[in-house]
Amino acid sequence: MSTKRVLYGLVGLYMTISICQSSYFLARTQWGYNHYYYYCVTNSSFALSWIHEDMTGKLDYVSKYIPEQRNGERNYDIRDDEITRKYFMKHPWRLQTSMQSNFNHPILDERWEAMDVIRTEYVELSSDKLLYQHFQNIVLKKESFDIPLSIRIQKEGHIFLCDGEYPPNSRCYWFMLQAFGGMGSAIRKCEKGYIPSEDGKLPQTPCNEQRVYKNHTVVPTYLSNKMWSHFVLSKHKNVLRFSQFSNQKEQLIMEWEDYDIPIDVTHIIVHSKINKGLWKIHNLDFLYADAASSDVNLGPPIFRADTFVCISMYVTMCPSCKLVLSLEDGQHVLKTEDFELKHSGWDQIKIMTENANTSNAIKLSITTKSSDPKPYWAIDKVRLCREKEFRMLKLSERVSCQLISDSEGVTDLKGQSQPNLNSKCPEDTIGEFCVPCHWVTYNCEYLKVCQERKCVCSAGYSGSECRYRCARKTYGHGCQKQCTNCKYECNKATGTCPYGCLKNYYGKKCDIPPAIFANPPEITEILYTEAIVRVSNFQLENSASYPITQYYTVQYKTADASDINWRNVSDQYHEFNSTGIFKILNLTSGTQYLVRSVIVGPNGKWNINDHLKVNNFATRCDEISEDDINIETSKTTARIYLSEGTTLTCKSYFITVEERGAVFSNRSGTFYTDLLPYKSYTVRVRGIQKTYEKKFATDERVPTSVMNLTVTAMSATTVLLKWVEPFSINGVFKHYVIEYQYVSYMDCNFTSFESSRKSRRETQDTSVTITELIPYSTYEFTVFALNTKFSGSPVSQRTTTPYCRTIQPEETPNIVRINTTHESASIVLSEIKCESIRGPLTVEIKTTCISEWCQNKNTQRKIDIKTLPKTGIIEVINLQSFSEYDLEVKLCRVNGSCSAPQKKKFETKTTVSKSVSNLLVYTKNASSVSLRWKPPYPPTGVLKNYKINYFIYRKKVEEEMQIRRCRLWPELHCAILNDLPSNVDLTIKVYAINKAVKDYSPPKEIQTYVKTEKSKPPYNLMLNWTTKNNMQVVWKHPNETNGEVSYFGIQVIDSTTDQKKIIDEQKLNVSRETYNLTYHYLFDGSLLSPTTEYTVAVYAFNGEDGDSAQQMTTSPVDVPKLSDDPEFVISNGLLKILVLPNKVRGYTHTYQLLVLRSDKQSNLELYPSLEEYELKNLKVIVECDLLQITETLEIYVGSLQQHPSCKEKDNSFLKPETTDNITIVLQNFFENESRTTIYTYNPVEKIKRVVVNPNYYWPPVLLIVVLVVIFFGL
C-alpha cells in the first residue's frame, strides 16, 4: 500500500493524537509535606524549556516521550559515533553539520533542547575585564552564512562576528541588541584594538560609529528575559542582516552593507551588559545527501513483540525533492509512503503499519527522487514511535514552561484554578488532549493543570491550588457530577461507589435504577371504611437493567405528609404477572389515602425509590350544603364559618381563597388576613365529595403610594414627572395630586423651602409636565393618589432644573481695577448675587505677555464662581517683572458657551535685576583684563549701570561701569580693568542694577590670572572649495585671545602621511583696530593636489602661538584643461579637430571630452551633469574617453569614423554656406565630485565650399548596386 503526504507546517501533520495542534500544558502534583513535582507536557514536535526567572538553574533539560519506551526501543540521534557510522552512513548519505550546509534553517523542534547553551553575565572582576563568551564548537569557514540562534536577555545583548576568538584583539562586526538603555539597536565595525577590554571604557573612533541605527521609540519586545526569542544572523558577502524569526517568517531588524574591506569572519562571541543572558546557536549533526538514490537501508533491524510499527524522523529537502520510505520484513513490503515539503525548514514525519510479522526483523528503506539540478535531503533523530504519544519535562522546583515555537508564550502556575466545566476527557486524564495521569505521574490526585494561562484541577479536586477534594456527593472534572445513590461517599475522581448503593440502585457508580411498576393499582370501589384495588398491568420501568422479577406486593398510607409508614395490604407476596384483587380494611371515613404496587427483589428487598407510581382515593362521609357557608368581611380580613346547627360527619373541609387554603372542622370557621382592600374574592369550600364556591368583596382603604416616581428635565424651565400607578387604589380611583415648591438656588448657601409657596396640579394620567420653573434651582415634587374616601401616601423627590445654556447679562461681573506687583496682579471684579446665577459659571482669566522677553507668554486660570472670594479679587501669580500684559476676563458655562470677553492692559513693576550671564575674559595682558558678558535677561527693569569688584593684595577694589556695547559682539556688554599688577589671581564679580531700585543683582564671578597667555582657538572654522579648486578658509575671532592678537596663522597639512607635513602656511595680519568677528582667507588651489585629504589649522598669535582650530577636507578632483588651443582642418565636408587635453592629477574614474554643435534638437537631457551650464540649442555629437589618451586626439565633425576612444552621437555632415560654433566640454569625475571646463570656438567664419573627394563615396554606391542586382536576380 502506497500513500503520499505533503507537509506544510513545522509541526508533523501526521500526529493522530492532536486534538488541538501545537498545544502544551504545565501540571503540578504534591508529594509529602510541601513538596511538589512539576510536569510540562506537549503533543507537538516543538521543544520544551523550563524558564528559571533568575537564569541560574540547570540548562540541559531534555524531554522524554510518554508513555515510556519499551525495552529494546531506541532513539538514534545522528552524531559522529559508531552506530551512525555503522547503520546510517551509507552512500550517498554522509554526516554534516548545520554550519557546513547551505540550508541552515532555524530548528525549534525537540532537538533544540539538546543544543549547547552559553550563559553570559555582567561580572566586574578584580581586573575589571569584560567577559566575552566564545562559542568554542563553531568555526565559520564560509564567506556567506546564516546563523539561527535563540536568546533570553532583557536588553543590552551584544554579538561579535570576528576574525579571532577575543574581540579586543580582533577585527569584528559588533551587533548591539536593544542597547543604549533598551532604546536602540545598532551595527558597528571595529578594527583590531578598538573594542574595549575593560569595564567603563568606550570604543575608539571609528568603532563607536553606528553604521546602522534602529531607534526604538517604544522598547521593543523582540528581546525578553522571560522567554526565548529566535533570530537569524546573516552575512552574505558584504551584506549583514539581523532578523527575528516569528510565525515562520523573518522580520528584518537591521541591515548594513560594508563597502569597505570586509572582515573574514571565523568566530562568534557574545557578551551581556548589565543583564544576564542565555544564548543558543542552532547547530547539530544530521545525515545529508545531494544525489538521488534507491532503496538504501538505514538503521539497525527492528524486532517487535506486536504487529504495530511506527518510525519517526526529522527531514528537510529541496522544494522539488521527494523522499520515499518503505517498511519491509524481508519477505514483503509492509508500507510505502511518499513525502514532499512545500516550504523550507525541517518537518517531523512518521510512517506506521499494523501488519508487521513479529517473527521477522523489520527494515527501513529510503529512496530519494528529484528534478532539481541541485537536490539535497537531510535526516535526523530516527526513532521508534507510538500512535499516541506525548513529550514531557519533569522538575522538583517551581518554574514556568515555554513551548519553543515561533508564536507561543510562557505558561506558569500563577493563575487561579477555575472549574473545568467543559472537559470532554475521561476523569483519569489531564489536559485538553486527554493524557492519561499514570503516563505523567502515579495518579490524578492534587494535580493543577495550566494551559494558555488558564488553570484547572484534575478530576476530583478544587480550589485555587487544587488542594481540596470535591464536596460531598460530587465528583469529576470541576466537581460538576453528582453521586447521589452511593452509600457514604463516592470516589472523587471517577464517581464509583466503593461502599455500595442506596435505594436498590446498581452499577459501579450506582447509576442503574431499580425496576418499578409503570402504572399504579386501579381503585375499583370506595366505601366509608374500606376500599378495593386491582393490579393487572405488569408493565415495568427500568426492566432492561434489572434481574428477573418474581413477586410483588401492594401498600397504602394516608395522604397526610406527616404519615411516612406504608402498610402491606397482605402478609403474602404475589407472583409477578398474576392479577390480584386486594381489599383494604379498617380505614377512616372521610380521609384521603395513597396506594402503590412494589416489586420484591431477589434478595427479598422492596424496590422502593422516589419515582414509584401511586394512586389516591378518599373514603366516603356526609357533605354540607352551600347554604351552610357564611362569610363576614372587613378592609383586609374575611371570616368563613358554618351556620348554627350544621351536622359534621366528615373529618374536615378544605377552604381556598385566591390560592390560599385552610382546614377547619368546627363552626367557628377560619380567618383570612392580609387581603387586599376593595377587591373581589372567590371562596371555594371542598369537602370529601363536593366543592362549593361563593364570592365576597373587602372594603375600601387608603391607596398605596405611587411607584417609580421620576423627574426628567425637558429644558431649563420645564420638567416631566412620571410614575407607576399604586399597587392598589384600595377603592374607586379619583385622580392624582402633584404638589411642588422651590427649595433653593444652586449657588446660594441658604434654602427658601419654608417660605416658598406650594403649587398644586391634578391629573388622572401617570405623567404631567410642569413649566415656568426657575433654571438652575432645586425643587421638591410630591405625588399621591386619591380614591373616593382616602388620600394615598405621598411620594416626594427633589431635583435640580438644568442651567441656561447662554449667560445672562445680570450674571456677568465687571473689571473694577487691577493692582500689580513685580510678579502678580490682583484683578478686582464687581459683586455677583447668587440669586442671579442661572447655571454653573467659571471665571476664565487669560493674561498674555506682549513684551518680547517674556518666557511664559500665556497664563490661564479658571475659577468656579462658587469659590470666588467675597471680595471679588482674583490673584494671578508667577508673572514676569517689568512686562506688559493683555488681560482678558470672561465667564463660561460647562457646555462651552462664554460671555463676551472684557479686555484691559496692565504692567508689572520693576524689581531687582537678574545676574549677568556668559561672563568671559576675552583678552588680557600683564596689566589689564577685558571682560564681556550678556546683559541680564529677561530684563526686570530699565538697566542703570554695572558694578565690578575684585581684591588686589586683600584690598577690595570696586568700580562703577557705565553700559558699553562690545565692538565685535554688539549684543554683549564689555568692560576693561586697567592698571592691574601682573601675575596675580583675580576673582572678579559683576553686578547689575536697575533704575528705581536700590539693590544690585546677585553677582556673577569669574577667576583669571593677570598675564598674557596663549590664545584659545578660533571657532566655527569652515572650508569651502571654489570651482577653480581654490580653498576659502572662514573662521570667527577667538572668544578668549588672552592678549593682543597680531596675526592669524593658517596651515595646510597633508593628512595622507604619518608625518603630517605642512604643505603651506600663511599669515593674516590684524590689530585691535582691524579686529572682525569673521575672517576669510583664500588659498591658491594650484599648490594643492586634487583628491587629497588635508587638515587646515588656524591659530591666533598674541606673542605666542595659540591653540588651533582644525578641520579636515578632501580637495576636489582636478580641473580638466586643454594643453593648447585646438587646430581645425576643413576638407570634403568634414571638420577635423586636433586637441591635446592635459593629464588630470589625483584620482578619477571618468575623464571625458564632449564635442557639441548648434542644433535646436538638443540631446542634453542625456547628460545631467551639464544641466547647470547655459548650453541651449546644442547637441552632443562626439563623446571621447580621455583616461588612456596621452597624445593629440583627432576628432571628426560630419563623419562616422572616429578615434577608438570616441563615439559619435548623430554626427551629420556639414552643410555649405553655414556657420557652426563648436563647443568642447572637458569633465572629470571622481566619487560624488566633478569639475567641468567649457571651450567655445568658431573655426571658420563661413564654409564657402565643400571639397568632395570622388573616392570618398564610391564604396557605398558600389555596395548599393550589388544589392539591387542580387535582389532582382532572386
UniProtKB/TrEMBL annotation:
InterPro entries (UniProt xref): FN3_dom, FN3_sf, Growth_fac_rcpt_cys_sf, Ig-like_fold, RTP_Phos/Ushers
Entry GO terms, CC: membrane
Coiled coil location: none
Organism from which the protein derives: Zophobas morio
Sorted UniProt keywords: Membrane, Transmembrane, Transmembrane helix
SUPFAM superfamilies (alphabetical): Fibronectin type III, Growth factor receptor domain
Highest taxon, organism lineage: Eukaryota
Name of the protein: Fibronectin type-III domain-containing protein
Domain Fibronectin type-III: 705-809, 915-1015, 1017-1122
Residue intervals passing through the bilayer: 7-27, 1256-1273
Pfam families for the chain: fn3
